[in-house]
Amino acid sequence: GWRRRRLGVLPSDVASLLLWAVRTGTAPEPAKMQSLLVLLQPHLRVLRRAHLLRLLLALAEGGVRPEAGFMRHMVECMEPKLPLLGAENLTQLLLALRGLGYVPPQDWILAYIQASRAQLHYYAPAHVTATLEVFSSWQLRPPRPYLRALLALADGLMTKYSHKGLASLLHCLGSLGVRPQRRWLVQALSRLAEAAEAAAGGGGQGQGGSRLEGIQEVQAEAGALHSHSHSQSHSHSQSRRSSQRQQRRAVAAWSLVVALCSLRGVVELEGAGEREREGEWQGGASWQGGREEQRGGVRVPQVPQGPQPSAPPLPEQHAVGAADWSDAALHTAAAASSSQAAAPSTTPSPAAPPPLLPRPSSLASSSSCPPAPRPVLLPYALWSPVKRLSEVLVARGLLGELSGRQLDRLIHALDRLNFYPGREFLAAHAAATAAVGAQLLPERKAAVAGCYGRLAALVPAMAEEARRQALARQARQAVMLAEGAGDAWEK
């Protein structure tokens, strides 16, 4: 009896019981929870790491918001135990702190980063993404060495990422102001396209499901007494599978929108005069960090302004390469852009917004004003993967899974990227926008129509950039051939 009474009042038992009560829906009222925290606070230092973590999880999952003094004492007690936590517990700890709305002091964060780096080889893709999501929600950019290690790990785990995980990862990097290497971005976007295509198409699961349905039908026909129950079960199962498939398609479409919205920081950084450093660290991001980052400190990043939404399949019949951006293809699109850009608007729009591109020389006055600045296009290395993403939206019919607000964000993201996705995409986007036109206000419809016009006007600039890139490739090849011929002559 004495032992049972003693175990019943141990602080560790209280922490474990609180988590059990929260997860079973039998937690006490918030006022009683707060009184329990007052009783527990003097005993926090004697709790083991597992019990401290359980207490934090119980508070976060139960929606309890302790006082700042309690949280400060809690993280102080947890700090010396951080090196003893594994990858899963470290991630749970960060997520619990975010759920409680508490940002630890800088010294604690640095101690956490040190413990996390020692466990990185045990991290899965979900751990990497969750860690960056928490720092993004805190608007705190981790030190450069830790980010380097995280992104190098993400590079090695790229094939294990889902489309949703990659979209979240890109969104976190954009909100933290991290600029990955072009190679890293191309690889991430390509993997994103493949994963979203599999999710939108259903892969082999659909075929397996149809075979299972056939077996169930045969079994149902074999027994007359159970035929009615089997048909009802089959109908419910079919409806559930259809709902799950539609859910997967909607998530895949939204992941694509998130990825495209996250890329706009690349254009903004280059437009501000930033240039990619030579010899960037492998698998990571190039930083323009100050002394504080080099000391290993944590600072508030420059978060891009505007909405930050939270990934797309690759159609097999549309391979994107240099030929897609040839002069003939771009000028063909330019010839039809005037009629195509006007078609999408379902309501009469007010005066068109000012153009983002210089007018053609035949229309601009030759002596009145200086030429408009050249548009900052999406970097050429990203044209192919971004084109793949836009083609997947069209080929898999994912635009129909988006709401009016999501379609608005998508076309504005492409507009900010200064990337023309092609006539087929604009036509499909216009049809999807018309189908959900009731969800958009007239001014938003007018803004979407303005995006169509500005995107179509990008064709000449993109054709010129494609020619410049082709000439640069030819020049590099000529130099390589000349060097090879010289070496052969010397031999």
Automatic annotation (TrEMBL):
Annotated region (Disordered), positions in chain: 222-246, 272-369
Compositional bias segments (type: Pro residues): 304-315
Protein's UniProt keywords contain Isomerase: no
Domain of life: Eukaryota
Extent of Low complexity compositional bias: 322-349, 359-369
Signal sequence coordinates: 1-27
Keyword annotations of the record: Signal
Biased composition (Basic residues): 227-246
Protein name, UniProt field: Uncharacterized protein
